Amino acid sequence: IPDESFRTTRPDIVGPDVPDVPFPIKLSGPVQHGFGRGSKDLGCPTANLPDDSLPPMINAAKTGVYYGYAQVTPSEGTTSSLSDQDVCVLPMVMSFGWNPFYKNERMTAEIHIMHEFKTDFYGYNMKALVLGYIRPELHYTSREALIEDIEFDKKVALKSMARPGYEKYMSDPFFT
Ligand code: ADP
Ligand code: RBF
Ligand code: MG
């Protein structure tokens, strides 16, 4: 089974030492409610970007799992329940693909930020700088296998972005 051999031989650093075209890809928009399929149950809540924020990704990249940085910021003129640590530029993993829930008629980009938030942040603006590709979307038959791979994706993202060519994007002028 091709998927199985891929899963047992995954490298923990992926992509070139410096982001290569089409990266970095900039995405931004207010966090949407997802489909309630329970990313949180997978130990991995994903903040969903709105449809109209996806063209930079759709036009430049294939579906799959990606790494980069994200930042959540309150909408202007509102009081925020987020702490200073919550509004930093933080490492993220993103699942980008067709959504079977909508009969594959819609692409979605779901971002898991590698940080413990005390509260949800639906409606807050989220900026994401996508810096590299990790792997294709796989068709999982077990929830355990998906959870295992997401945990590995997080390690890959952190190790891959620990390189100077990636770390510098934390202070990119795109972020506030
Ligand atoms: P939904 O189907 O509505 O997207 P999820 O179970 O994926 O539901 O949860 C996503 C929500 O969880 C986000 O919109 C955000 O408000 C919250 N959240 C809390 N911690 C995180 C995190 N570390 N990364 C992403 N979202 C988080
Ligand atoms: N779902 C899949 O069916 N196949 C995948 O390869 C896949 N990879 C994911 C990688 C990451 C980093 C994350 C956060 C989620 C992934 N998902 C995958 C889960 C999917 O996008 C969605 O979050 C779940 O269906 C729960 O809503
Ligand atoms: Mg989600």
TrEMBL record:
Q: Tell me where on the tree of life, at the top rank, the source sits.
A: Eukaryota
Coiled coil (UniProt feature): none
GO cellular component terms, alphabetically, are: mitochondrion
Q: Which GO terms describe its molecular function?
A: ATP binding; riboflavin kinase activity
One Pfam entry for this protein is: Flavokinase
Q: Which SUPFAM superfamilies match?
A: Riboflavin kinase-like
Pathway per its UniProt entry is: Cofactor biosynthesis; FMN biosynthesis; FMN from riboflavin (ATP route): step 1/1
Residue ranges of domain Riboflavin kinase in the record: 24-162
* Enzyme Commission code(s) on record: 2.7.1.26
Q: Which SMART domains match?
A: Flavokinase
Keywords for the protein's UniProt record, in alphabetical order: ATP-binding, Flavoprotein, FMN, Nucleotide-binding, Transferase
GO BP annotation list = FMN biosynthetic process; riboflavin biosynthetic process
Tell me, what does this protein do in biology?
Catalyzes the phosphorylation of riboflavin (vitamin B2) to form flavin mononucleotide (FMN) coenzyme.
Q: Which PANTHER family match?
A: RIBOFLAVIN KINASE, RIBOFLAVIN KINASE/FMN ADENYLYLTRANSFERASE
The record's similarity note reads:
Belongs to the flavokinase family.
Q: What is this protein identified as?
A: Riboflavin kinase
What is the scientific name of the source organism? Suillus luteus UH-Slu-Lm8-n1
